[in-house]
Write a structure and sequence with these properties.
The structure holds 2 protein chains of 2 kinds.
Chain A (H helix, E strand, L loop, with lengths): L4 H30 L19 H6 L6 H32 L5 H11 L4 H15 L5 H26 L2 H9 L4 H29 L3 H6 L8 H6 L11 H32 L4
Chain B lengths: L1 H13 L15 H30 L24 H7 L3 H35 L4 H13 L2 H11 L5 H6 L10 H28 L3 H9 L4 H29 L3 H6 L10 H10 L3 H30 L14 H7 L2
Classes of the chains: A mainly alpha, B mainly alpha.
Chain lengths: 277, 337
């Protein structure tokens, strides 16, 4: 490169600023809009002229049942994550550590299921769940969500388990551990950062799910947060409540943003503390 | 996520395509243990994926209940119509189907292409940034973490006729009405949300390239552009291909973004998923299932093409594995987790 080091440094700063602006500007706009008063919701100033929490109060008003939607999302995404993680941990361990016939085929099939278009699963499952009387129930959303969270978790965890050297486990088994003990006492603690990461990714995927939650519910009190905000209507039918929508969007996203920040720290901890290095 | 990429990638790179990894294991009888560990997952997937898919295939051969000519009442059961639903798709209902098909294809190609270019640019910047790296990483995860439903609302607000997009560009475009600008709005919103994801995967690929390679190139007199084309891009290709594969498969089943940003039943942005969902919502399960099956076959063919592409890559150093070539899970499973 013929550029002077100083110029390169400034170009890099500009690039970093551009990336950060690209990622955060729309999110920032949502935040700013949610803090405007209804009367100046169409203002385009980069800061709210008068800070107002009226949109948040409107969203959290008991009549909107939005808090209930957040709770529903938490239950559905949380249960999905826990179940997927438990099942995936066993499977991923087998995939990464054991040799058995048809292993490649099984892994291929598990991964392949994640590419199935969700819509082609929802239609028959909807019919089935109507017969079960499961419409407007948590399990009607949790069970179909396994179709994409489980392959995701298996895939992530398999990679994590593979990264850990065989030698640790072998050493433990030479020292008298059974395979089960080695798994519990060596693999699981070492894989904890990886499992945490997998849990986060799975949770976000489940939390963001829209099509299943839309199809399996028709009562507002059973809707998850993404569906609830998409059907959000204000007091007047002819006025779209943009401010409330943005406030609801912020509320749905904030748990994820907090997790992303925690997730960062966890990665650093995993890097420095990993015995596998 | 970055760390996992970072560590998974070199291993995958180092592995030949088909090493029969049969190191002697410490215990015997792993087959039974493996079956025990794997079967719950398989069972769940059979129930929630395989069975519904077969049911969809069956449903696609049935029509909507018509009138019974003898009684004059609507029949309770769906009549078996054979391949009529498919016939209708390529015949009478063809216009709407082909529109949805081309919308799906167009949106997939344009979004994935733009995301790839922007993602690579982001990765190159992040790779060189040492100060503020944590900030960049945290902010790059924000678009990825935002639910698509929220991002649809957010962009509908930005693209409002009195919104900030028109204010900044000095235009008066009605973005969310029918027309090419609706496609553009969907593309912009989708690229914003998913380019960072490609950036993250490419960054992981970049981090495993050793500095010595670049030093050697510099000594040989290769410029920055040459280094990018001849070193960075080829070495990052495995990670990039996996990222592009996943984005492509995801874009092909796009539903929530156009549904919320523009609306249902809009010709400009109706995708195959939206078409199938719309049919199902109108209790036309037979045609809905037929659309779903066609989408499934389309996704499957694209995935197959990609895996072959990846496979062709791996097979450079792997002669006898020809028969294995087309399912080749090893590469896909190991690179991108």
């Amino acid at each position: 490169m013929t550029l002077s080091p100083k110029l390169r440094k400034w170009l890099l700063y500009a690039g970093v600023a551009a990336v950060v602006a690209y990622c955060l500007a729309p999110f920032y706009w949502m935040l700013v809009s949610s803090l405007r008063r209804t009367s100046d919701i169409f203002a385009n100033s980069p800061f709210p002229t008068r800070l107002s929490f009226e949109n948040y109060l409107a969203v959290l008003d008991p009549s909107e049942s939005f808090t209930r939607a957040l709770l529903n999302s938490l239950v559905v995404a949380g249960t999905t994550t826990v179940v997927a993680l438990v099942l995936a941990t066993f499977t991923a361990y087998a995939m990464a550590r054991l040799e058995f016939r048809l292993k490649r085929l099984v892994l291929t099939l598990i991964i392949a299921t994640s590419m199935f278009p969700v819509v082609s699963l929802v239609v028959p499952l909807l019919k089935m769940f109507v017969d079960f009387g499961w419409i407007n129930s948590y399990q009607a959303m949790i069970v179909p969500s396994m179709s994409f969270t489980l392959p995701l978790a298996v895939w992530n965890l398999t990679a994590f388990f593979r990264q850990m050297p065989d030698e640790l486990e072998h050493a433990a088994m030479v020292d008298g551990c059974t395979r089960g003990q080695a798994f519990r006492k060596i693999i699981i603690p070492l894989a904890a950062p990886g499992m945490f990461t997998t849990a986060i990714i799975t949770f976000i995927a489940a939390w963001n799910e829209f099509l299943i939650a839309l199809s399996m519910t028709n009562k507002p009190e059973m809707q998850t947060a993404p569906v609830a905000i998409s059907t959000f209507s204000g007091a007047s039918q002819f006025e779209t409540p943009f401010g409330s929508q943005m406030a609801a969007g912020v509320l749905v996203t904030v748990p994820l943003v907090i997790m992303v920040l925690l997730f960062q720290r966890r990665i650093v901890a995993g890097l420095t503390a990993g015995a596998a290095k | 996520m970055v760390t996992t990429q970072n560590q998974a990638a070199p291993r995958a790179l180092a592995l030949p395509a088909k090493p029969p990894r049969r190191r002697p294991r410490a215990t015997s009888g792993t087959g039974r243990l493996a079956a025990l560990l794997v079967s719950p997952t398989l069972l769940v997937l059979v129930v929630v994926v395989l069975y519904p898919t077969l049911v969809a295939l069956k449903d696609s051969l049935y029509g909507t209940p018509g009138l019974n000519p003898k009684t004059g009442f609507v029949n309770d059961t769906d009549p078996f119509v054979g391949l009529q639903n498919y016939g209708a798709i390529f015949g009478a209902a063809g216009a709407r189907f082909w529109n949805a098909f081309w919308n799906t294809t167009f949106l997939t190609v344009t979004t994935v292409a733009l995301e790839t270019v922007i993602g690579i640019a982001m990765a190159l910047i992040m790779h060189r940034a040492f100060q503020g790296r944590a900030l960049v990483r945290a902010s790059i995860l924000v678009p990825w973490a935002i639910p698509t439903a929220v991002s649809g609302l957010l962009w509908r607000w930005i693209f409002n006729s009195n919104g900030v997009a028109n204010a900044l560009t000095g235009q008066h475009i009605l973005w969310t009405t029918e027309g090419f600008h609706a496609k553009l709005a969907v593309i912009i919103a989708d690229v914003w949300k998913t380019a960072p994801f490609i950036g993250l995967l490419v960054l992981a690929g970049l981090q495993v390239i050793s500095k010595e390679v670049y030093e050697a190139a510099r000594i040989d007199g290769a410029g920055a552009l040459r280094q990018f084309w001849n070193i960075t891009l080829p070495l990052v290709k495995p990670a990039l291909l996996v990222a592009v594969l996943f984005r492509t498969l995801d874009a092909l089943r796009m539903f929530d973004l156009p549904y919320i940003l523009i609306g249902a039943k809009k010709t400009s942005v109706e995708t195959l998923s939206m078409l199938a969902q719309d049919q199902a919502a109108n209790v036309r399960f037979g045609p809905a299932a037929a659309y779903a099956v066609i989408l499934f076959v389309y996704v499957f063919l694209i995935a197959l093409a990609f895996v072959r592409l990846l496979g062709a890559d791996v097979l450079g150093d792997d002669g006898p594995a020809r028969t294995r070539r087309w399912w080749l899970p090893r590469r896909r499973t190991e690179v991108a987790a």
